[in-house]
Amino acid sequence: MTATSLETEARSSGMRRFVRRVLFSEYLVLWLSVLYFLAVLPFVPQMASVEVLRNILSDMLPLLVVAIGQTFVLIVAGIDLSVTSIIAMASVVGASVMTGDGGYLAGSPLAVPAAMLAMVTVGLAIGAFNGFCITRLGMPPFIVTLTTMMFFSGAAIWFTTFHTTTSSIANLPHGFVVLGQGNIGGVPNSLWVVLAVGILAHIVLARTVLGRRLYACGQNRRAAAVSGVPVRKVIAAAFLISGACAAVASILYTGRLQTGTPILGQTILLDIIGAVVIGGTSLFGGKGKVVWTVFGVLFLVLIDTSLKMLGLSLFSVFAIKGAVILLAAVIDAVRTRFAARI
Amino acid sequence: MNTVRLRLALLRNAPVALFVVVLAVFGSLSDRFLDVQNFTNILIQASHIAILGIGMTFVLLTAGIDLSVGAVMYLSVALLGIYLADASPILAVPAMMAVGALFGLVNAFFVVRLRVAAFIVTLATLFIGRGLALWVTETRMVFYKDQILSLARAEFLGVPWAIWVFAIVFAVAWIVLNHTPFGRQVYAVGENPDAAAKAGINVPLVLTTVYAVSGACAGIAGFVSITQVGAAASSFAMEKEFAAVAASVLGGVSLFGGRGGVAGTVFGAVLIQTVQNGLVIVNADPYIYPLVTSSIIFVAVFVDSQRSRILERLGRRRIRIEERPV
After folding, report:
1. Which UniProt keyword terms apply here (chain A) (predicted)?
2. Which residue in the set B132, B298, B309 is minimally distant from A138, CB to CB?
3. Could you tell me the domains of chain B?
């Protein structure tokens, strides 16, 4: 063997190692985000301004909460299409409790906490219903959550007509609005909430028995059941968590818009699932992490913001978003096949 | 054992019973509902979802899913309105089918060659397809000429044109799935792709074909839909993919592949449309339409899942035979 061929071989194996390291990195999507950010910076220098960065962060927050809930469901190989309807339903129910225009508890000091409690209850109830149908009645998650999505999206609009003649319930109490826009120690309240949810979710997935069981159910349900995992309860828990997360996101969205509206979150369903999958969580279960979802959401919001700032037409925003989701999925597929070969 | 048989028979016929109940309820509430003219209307209104659902059935039978069909409908309709505005339907329909099939081949490339999950691929191409359509139309409303709009009222042998298209697509799909080798291969791949490959079936080819079929059906559905709507706004065919999946599942097609057929899908599409038509006729509050429709889909899926659970229990092999006390 000649020296040159050895050299090229060494170089190619070094190259391969590098490719492998990049592909298998946990932070692949984060690196892609940074790369993307640097790539668009020359075209839109405003991207690096504090204001825009703050906007990106605040756009991320509610989306991130729903996406974290969705991560739990995807880990057990389920899917939750009903999250957007939970956001809508929780928003109008919460608003109907606390609105100054004839809300159930208008003017009462308990109005704001009661409304928030009602919103979380809505999320938990719909999540519990999904979980019950899937685990006890043996129905496929896709269809169960598709029908709950159709039902509660319709129900949210119907519910609104009882409380107002317009399309949304406005005049929310000052206390609620302040809660959404205030800050503690210079950090916005919503960021605190999302941080708390994120850290809690990470601990549950990485450090608790429930977390282990969620992964086990997603990887191989039968094996999990044989090893004594209460499969039904674990899967139901994932849907409950998803419902609760969607309700928290609804509180954040409602606080930001200062109205309860049934069209809240109508268009973000595919963004949510897209973001989680871009992060690297598998649709077939057993694989997923909270940090991955954070990166996925960051990537998607970054692209959204930059495209808007570039002043691109609606068509390019749609098409580029689709291409990015596809690219992320292809990278993931390649990665999985590499992993299988080694 | 007999009670199990009875329960199975009941569950098997439950969707039909549901249909009869729907007919009876709306029939008693309004005498216009059970009119022949009204049934013709229902079939016409159901036709584009049924055609879309027939294409979707092929994909679902292989345990895939095609979320891009709504976008394909919009894209093919947009291309028709912009580039083939003067073409006759004889040319327009094949052209739209070709656009759809081409789009389906793109989906298939990612699903089959790169082995990306169908859900994600078609989710992405949904965005891309709608983006392309918005680009073609420059986000403006597209209007259509008389030779297309006149088809909405056109009849052949006394039967409206849309129903003919619907019937032809259904007949072709039914024959293909039930009486051709390709149809059997689709079921085999859906049942167990590895076993199908070992049996000598060209699995990639079968998978590629079903996505092309789904795209082509979406092209036809776009054409049928545009003759009725008359103009394509940027929200044209939005979320029709969910309606198509719902129709298939309502008709007993499994999302896990290998089970169901196009007859069920057509039944599902007609049932959904019957309910919506009935709600309009009895002057129901428009806000409860989605509530009723989704409840009916839910009940049908519930019944179907109970049936397959019983069947699964019956089919389970007893590996360990318990000793019974004498």
Report:
1. Cell membrane, Membrane, Transmembrane, Transmembrane helix
2. B309
3. 34-305 (1.10.3470)
Tokens of B312: 């699964």
**Spacing of C-alpha A311 from chain mean position:** 26
Q: Which two tokens stand for residue B246?
A: 């719902």
For residue A333, list chain B residues with Cβ-Cβ distance below 8 A. Answer: 114-117
How many pairs of residues across A and B have Cβ atoms under 8 Å apart? 138
Of residues B36 and A243, which shows the higher confidence score? A243
Q: Find the CB nearest A330 among B116, B126, B301.
A: B116
Asked whether the beta carbons of residue B125 and residue A322 sit closer than 8 angstroms, the reply is yes
Buried b (16+ CB within 10 A) or exposed e, B85-124: eeeebeebbebbbebbbebbebbbebbbeeebbbbbbbbb
Chain B closest CA to A181's CA: distance in Å? 33
For testing the chain A interface, which of B291, B306, B316, B320 should be mutated: the one with the most A CBs within 10 Å? B291
The contacts of residue A254 (CB under 8 Å, 6+ apart) are: A90, A91, A94, A95, A119, A172, A176, A180, A260, A264
How many CB atoms sit inside 10 A of residue A101's CB?
13
Residue A199 CA to residue A87 CA, distance in Å, equals 22
Architecture of the structural domain at A27-341: Orthogonal Bundle (1.10)
Does the complex come out with an ipTM higher than 0.90? no
Residues of B in contact with A137 (CB under 8 A): 302, 305-306
| Cβ–Cβ below 8 Å for A143 and B302 | no
pTM: 0.84
